[in-house]
Amino acid sequence: xTDVHEVEVVVAHQERATLRVGEVFLKIDADRTxxxxxxxxxxxAPVPTPEILWRKPPxxxxxxxxxxxxxxxxxxxxxxxxxxxxxxxxxxRLHDAPLPPWPGRTPDEIAAHLDSRCEWLVAERVLPVDLxxxxxxxxxxxxxxxxxxxxxxxxxxxxxxxxGDEITGVIDWSEAGRGDALYDLATLTFGxxxxxGDVLSGYGADVDLDVIRGWWSLRSLHNIRWLIxxxxxxxxPGCEVDVxxxxx
Length: 248
Prior knowledge:
Blueprint: E1 7-12, E2 16-21, E3 24-29, H1 32-44, E4 52-56, E5 59-63, E6 68-69, H2 81-95, H3 107-123, H4 129-139, E7 149-151, E8 160-163, E9 166-170, E10 177-179, H5 181-188, H6 196-203, H7 209-229, H8 240-245
Antiparallel strand pairs: 1-2, 2-3, 3-5, 4-5, 6-8, 7-10, 8-9
Helix pairs in contact: 2-5, 2-6, 3-4, 3-7, 4-7, 5-7
């Protein structure tokens, strides 16, 4: 690696950090299990992923992907409808792949965790009771039995890289496992509801839109406490709190 003039901190908090050094990304994770899952998931996922340059826990070194992120939460996406459709098609290939060997969380486990987060939001007066109650009811649609699929687990739009209408790679596989395919689709379109039709055109299957909406509410309610405690702002325009308010 030559002509490196600076180290860019991509993201950093108490649990993990990602640094960019030239064309290499260094992922540092306090939980070795997440590093193991990420490497194993990328090895078998039927979609493009970053090249693993080396791995020495707690560090995973990855090559930079060509292209740009599909978008950013809270910002308009300039990616084409074709790029969003390609992201949906990539998600479908992943969901149709053989299941990974490690288990995922059950609806009952997710519901119990969600209820504790909702109680905290109300007790700490982070959000109005009616906003939490309304969205907790919407989230119930997601908490039904599902057929497990190979899921990315955190398929945010800035984890999907595109060049024109082509997917060049998907990053951040540390949450991959057996899960609900519709959770991936909801995460991909979180904060960008207007792009859901493009994603589903590429996905090529009928989905229950109430379940997608349920996952939007659930993800918001679940994540707000973590975001606040790790120095992020869920009240920014287009982010978690706005997603909850849009359901009212």
